[in-house]
Task: structure prediction
Amino acid sequence: MTTRDALPLEGITVVSVEQAVAAPFATRQLADLGARVIKIERPDTGDFARRYDETVNGESSYFVWLNRSKESVTLDLKSSAGREILEKLLATADVFVQNLAPGAAARMNLDATSLQERYPSLIPCDVSGYGNTGPWSDRKAYDMLVQGESGVMALTGPQSCPSRVGISIADIAAGMYAYSGILAALFTRATTGQARAVEVALFEALGEWMGSPAYYTEYGGQQPRRVGAEHATIAPYGAFPTSDGTVLLSVQNDREWSAFCTELLGDPAVEADPRFCRNSARVAHREECNALIAEQTRQMTTEDALALLAKIGIANGRLSSVPDFLAHPSLTGRNRWREVDTPGGPVRALLPPANLAGVEPRFDPVPALGVHTTSVLRELGYTAAAIDKLRAAHTV
Result:
């Protein structure tokens, strides 16, 4: 039997009252690196993301993605017995993560200030829509709403139709910042002994990602246009038709533009055309520039266009479908796929993108609702009779 090296976060215990995407994404990444994550769920329904769909062997695609390697414990936190169990868990935890509805944590004395008064070494992490203070602190915030409020939707899609990005980027951004914030807090505690609270707002997470268009708008006098798959401030950049499909390409500098004009357009004189001689000019005359390119790419197959672009050093790609992504040679060629068990059977899962030399991330099962409740209660000293009583009262 082979043994693996210890994971970086082994010995760290995380208790999470979490749901949906943002907080579960943060804690799953902690679990990947070895942290013990005890996920508290409602006894009757659990995390509502369990019921988003049933496509992964009867399980939700969101839930399977976000909850591997965790322990599911069901608790009624509105009951005194349920709260007592949670307090016992918090007394031994290193990190507490919550993304409850606005104001709910404070009402339950689970806000950062209250928790650190009771447990000075605990690192609380709050994930909210617009922060725990301020004029919008009481507003619900779902991914689409935050994409709209942050201006992301105003920049996404064709000019005729503002569009939501097709994945939950507000939740994902918040989950990433919660994860990195918790890692920083753990390091601070290890080096100074001080446990610092972490707070992440979905709106502020996307606000960070809006940096470039925000500067462009504030100092340029107008916000970038919506240009679909193209780039508002770089041209040529986007999708172009071929004889049998589509090719994606991006020209980033004058050297590339010179080679592009000679080799793909077949006309070196285009390089000096005042409409196209520099990037800002090409952006201003985007439609004319795109028409010249499309006239040439339509005469090529996709494979021939990709080969020529690669030959002359122009970044290029295909317009892949999700099945294309799942079969992508970069993933198989780099051995990125693993297997994880779910209540409905094993499924494929991708390795986390941050590769730590010598570390193989953990891929323990996605838990069924409440499957670890008994074992965790036994760790806390509850007898079989006491656990049966808690179940009869629907506390767990």
Observations:
- Residues 237-319 form a domain with the formyl-coa transferase, domain 3 fold (CATH 3.30.1540.10).
- The longest strand covers residues 36-41.
